[in-house]
Design brief:
The protein has helices spanning 33-44, 46-55, 100-114, 128-135, and strands at 4-7, 23-27, 63-68, 71-78, 85-91, 119-122, 138-139. By secondary structure, the chain is an alpha+beta fold. It binds coenzyme A. Pfam families: Acetyltransf_1 (PF00583).
């Protein structure tokens, strides 16, 4: 799971959005913390829920959400794992393939660019092809396990 580097000064501009009128992307509000974090824990586990909690600890928050017909559909964090890092991110399984993940990625990276970063790092990527195609991300050599070395594993439930 290597890290990837994104040039924020060369983000794709003017790409037609595939999102329908029923999908909205916006920064999460602090008041939504106890709704969003359990949603993430249920679908993506305790480690990502912990990172999402950290993303709610500043104003403005460092987490964007996607809403589909007013219901939570996905999320994307930044400046959580480390400063300058994008992630974690996830879209509800039933709603994947509709452009939501890409829209969340672009919105988060635009917020990072506005905050003054020239580059973003996508930490410990799973779908490298998704990031390469969406924002031209390139793999950082020798970045596995990177910042995640020696991280505690999630606790087994019931133990
Ligand atoms: C990765 C993820 C966020 C993508 O969300 P999504 O809403 O399905 O993505 P989009 O619909 O915006 O896809 C945009 C493009 O990337 C492609 N793509 C999506 N997921 C992909 C994957 N895992 N591998 C390769 N390509 C992928 C899509 O086919 C689409 O291509 P197209 O423009 O040619 O149609 C989603 O699959 C997810 O939640 N995965 C589980 C959690 C995860 O792995 N998060 C990333 C951790 S680094």
């Amino acid at each position: 799971m290597p890290d990837m580097l994104v040039r924020l000064y060369a983000l794709p501009e003017g790409r037609a959005s595939r999102l329908g009128p029923d999908v909205a992307i916006r920064r999460a509000l602090a008041a939504e913390r106890r709704i969003v974090v359990p949603w993430i824990e249920e679908r993506f586990g305790t480690l990502w829920a912990g990172e999402a909690e950290a993303a709610f600890s500043s104003t403005p928050t460092r987490i964007h959400v996607a809403l589909c017909k007013g219901e939570l559909a996905g999320f994307a964090c930044h400046d959580v794992t480390a400063l300058g890092f994008f992630g974690p991110t996830g879209v509800d399984q039933a709603l994947r393939g509709r452009g939501i993940g890409e829209a969340l990625l672009l919105e988060s990276l635009s917020a990072m660019r506005a905050a003054g970063y020239a580059y973003a790092i996508i930490g410990g990527v799973g779908p490298a092809e998704f990031y390469a195609r969406a924002v031209g991300a390139v793999e950082i050599p020798d970045s596995t396990p990177g910042i995640y070395a020696d991280m505690l594993p999630p606790e087994e439930s019931g133990s």
